[in-house]
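Journal club prep — side note

Before the paper discussion, L.F. wants everyone to see what a predicted structure for a comparable chain looks like in token form. Sequence:
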Amino acid sequence: MVAALAGARAYAVDTEFHRERTYWPQLALVQIAWAGQVVLIDPLAVDLGPLRRVLEGPGLAVLHAAAQDLEVLDRACGTIPSRLFDTQLAAGFLGFSTPSLASLVRRVLGVDLPKASRLTDWLRRPLVPEQQRYAAADVVHLLELADLLGAELAASGRLAWAEAECEELRTRRWGPPAPEDAWLRLKESRSLRGRARGIVHTLAAWRERRAAATDQPVRFVLSDLALVGIASEAPRDLAQLQRIRGVDQRHLRGGQDREILEAVRLGRSIPESALPSPRRDDLDRELRPALALLVAWVSQLGRELAIDPALLATRGDLTAFLSGDPESRLAQGWREELVGRPARRLVDGELALAFDGRGGLTLERRSGELVGVELARPRAAWIGDGG
């Protein structure tokens, strides 16, 4: 198969995996299609190392909703495709809102994919014929779908946008976060101050390493509730640790109690000034009306352009933009021209958002004409007249 794919212009890839009870994804199946061929690879029976040659080759890898597949391939093969076309992302630039593969194939190709339970155990062997047909269907139509979407994108002048988005997805950091950054994913970390912030930093890093070493979800090692509780209480001994809400006996077995207390001790010594501030999603009060306006405008713009609004700008993108983040996605590339510049003019008061009289919104040059609102004044007898 690797030899046959060496000269392929494009190939379709999908994976089946489980990770409900493990830290690392358990790869159960790899599906590949190219030039009329479909192959199912059993990673429980063969080494996937040779697949690296295909992924690093010149062929275009076509996937649907590729994010998790890229993480799985990176861990299994030590690399990701050198070129990527994500049909879900591409469809978003043509007015589809994060479509499933089945719905996209039905609407574009008029084909109904075979159905299977989402709870299928892909690790069980042997795979029955129904499972094999379902798995193969995930890749057999992808190349035709990619060609049709690509042609439509080129005709609408949006192919470069989709390709840029696919490349951004491809080059994103894959795999678990660095243990030292794990605390930043905790929503509650924003409210912690002083020694509690240092403790949550070291404790979250310990939890991440422990989960990776034992291959279990981080929540099995220690829940978020327990982690934040420990950081807030800063226990000095086992008795204090056991009294914290969310800490169960199962969390303290195998020497974990000593490791937790050591992480707490190390965290106490970290000054708050030495840690980065967690990214805040909230805005200064005076900018919140602007965020509401921009969210409404982006939604309208998505409808007008037949582009999934989430591809134009998420609420997080708009928040980062209004906060002046130089790394904001609205400050660069095609988004800066399409969304960032008009958004800046709207916030600066050059443009205004108004109803168009047909149930929609329109962005137009602001007139600067102020309109007063007459309010009825209460009669004096109604105020303080004793009854």
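L.F.'s comment for the group: The first strand starts at residue 10 and ends at 18. Keep this in mind when we get to the figures.
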